[in-house]
Amino acid sequence: MDAILLQILNGLDKGSAYALIALGLTLIFGTLGVVNFAHGAIFMIGAFCAVTLSRLLSLSHPSAEPTGTDFLGNPKFDDVLYVNEWFGETAGAFIIDWSVPLAILFAIPIMVAVGFIMERGLIKHFYKRPHADQILVTFGLAIVLQEVIKYFYGANPIPTPAPEVFRGSFDFGVLLGFEANAIIYPYWRMVYFAFALVLITAVFGFLQFTTFGMVVRAGMADRETVGLLGINIDKRFTIMFAIAACVAGLAGVMYTPINSPNYHMGMDFLVLSFVVVVVGGMGSLPGAVLAGFLLGILESFASMPVMTSLIPGINQIIIYLVAIVVLLTRPRGLMGRRGVMEE
Amino acid sequence: MTKSNFTRRGLMKTGAGAGAGLALPTIFTGAVWADAHSGFTNAPQGDSVTLGFNVPQSGPYADEGMDELRAFELAVEHLNGGGDGGMMQTFSSKTLEGNGIMGKKVNFVTGDTQTKSDAARASAKSMIEKDGAIMISGGSSSGVAVAVQSLCQEAGVIFMAGLTHSNDTTGKDKKANGFRHFFNAYMSAAALAPVLSKLYGDDRNAYHLTADYTWGWTQQASIQAATEALGWKTVNNVLTPLASTDFSSYIAPVLNSGADVLVLNHYGGNMVNSLTNAVQFGLREKQVNGKNFEIVVPLYSELMAKGAGQNIKGIVGSQNWDWKLGDEGTAAFVKSFGTKYGFPPSQAAHTCYAQTLLYADAVNRAGSFNPCAVGEALAGFEFDGLGNGPTLYRADDHQCFKDVLVVKGAENPEDEFHLVEIVEVTPVDQVTYAPDHEMFAGGELGACNPGA
Fold this sequence. Notes:
The structure holds two protein chains of two kinds. Chain A has helices at 2-32, 39-57, 82-87, 89-97, 99-121, 131-153, 172-175, 187-209, 211-221, 223-228, 233-255, 265-280, 285-302, 305-310, 314-329, and strands at residues 60-62, 68-69, 75-76, 79-81, 169-171, 184-186. By secondary structure, chain A is mainly alpha-helical. In chain A, the strands form three sheets. In chain A, strands 1-4 form a two-stranded antiparallel sheet. In chain A, strands 2-3 form a two-stranded antiparallel ribbon. Chain A is globular and about 70 Å long. Chain B contains 15 helices and 17 strands. A seven-stranded mixed beta sheet of chain B has the order 7-6-8-11-12-16-17, sandwiched between helices.
């Protein structure tokens, strides 16, 4: 029982990342009809916003006097952090410690700008082209973006720790009456899950309870009719693209303490996120979220030693097996809409 | 590019003497080799010779590959008489005088392995066939090393392996044309076991997470055998896909398993992520069976330590070499490398630099670039002054035998170059094994192939 609870918890944070990326993918597909294979790269750019802010906050100048010798025996100067000079050592240390949460504020304008530039600069030229063309161009864009990141940040993972206060883990086992160490769960993963819920709720709330959201939803249902009413739906869809990029980017920012970011992390999530979108139902936002969490949890269960010893390799194929079963029994996915990609 | 190009090029270069060169390579002595400047693949013509450096320039080990490339460039510079000579000054063999190899200026070409066996073979093939490379070196993966070594055997050029740690490279997949300076999984385990016993005792239950490919399997088998010989029990060994990024599903069951040690048979990004996840789940703060829970990473690298950040503190592992060693060779190499690039070299850089000098020296001693002559010169060669103390290139399997370092993550590193500290230098005798050891069984060196 404790092992099952543990894997459910594990699946939630993995599912949170899938759900957030798939949510953005679905928003873009539902509004613009574009299959965006660069969405994983957007997640990666978000993560590197956190890395960038962490580095900016760690900018320093050499100390006036040498403090020893370096590895070659030359005089060595300590790094004096600007942030410490400006705000004092205690405040400076606090700001650096909280660089990942602070990166949310840093990443929002950057991700909106990335989304806007990507949509206006490239993707809008492919709206009326076949999906195969869209996949090719966005996949190419993803590769370009990851190579750019690799050029500037290298290929190695870059440690980006959570604030000190969130670095431990919580013993759920004791809380639920199990023995100690039975169900351990890191604090930051709980934060990530809560963050994902807030973000998902915010996106749904925005679409459901604002006039802008209502127009977008109308446009998703019948783009031509909304256009005939004199509403510039293209402009709104561009904004939705930027919002989708922002959602994926923030998912990336908050993911950095879970796994050290590297230039390839977007690709690692991309294929799985597309499976999530297909299983959830193309164009269905609730479907994307539901499938994200569902597949995250199933993937966790499949990685349990008892499962891998029973069916070797099940951890690597479970998501695709589920996708096959869902598509065989519900061809439009769990919550797919009639008519989407069926023309 | 097709294989037939080998034959055409070879025939053009070797002429009528090719038959004799192919038939009698292994009975030549160094003196005889000195007259045999043809009859083998890419025999150098003119006053220069080309070496091929096949390193990951893209993909997950690109940073390691770049450091290897820096070392190769430095070695070529030193061979051609540039710079301060680096470890050429401390190398026990004195044939290298800064006038190239056998008086020929050294040029080099590079290829990108992408850390993929097929891509690595393709780039090595291109360097051999199109660029005329007479020796291939480099790589940061055992899968790649085994694949390229096999290609070099077929093509008739020498392969001086870079960073490859699987037992198989000089075990079941060893080849007469292939040589490894880097240590292997068995040596890591043999060096680590006594230190683990000293630090954590002999009554431990180990849980292994293992990368699911050749290196992971041999690393796991080696460390399991070595720790079980101490009295440790192996609770479980879970194979993890190489492409895994989040190891939480594999880490979570560890605490319920009764294990009090987690052995991460992972390298590179796998290791960074699995260790990060293990620390996140609080494993290092837990007590199991009345003992502190411990994590062991059998194969370390400085670049991995950098990626793992604070999580590496106190974690024990092994290395082939470290820039903080105090010997003359190390000091000379660190000075050369550090002056040129501004930071200390990694162990990947060190092994690639050493391999280039060893190859050049072997050619000089053999008096020929013929791979069979070079192989003869390297096999059984004893040397010193290249940073690892007295070293033997064993003839039976073309594996270097030298001291092994046991290291651990520094608790309070003074800067980014001091993330790893040396715990112990394990003497070579303790890590030496018989050529027919069961972990290395199943393959034959075979005869050297001069190609052409």
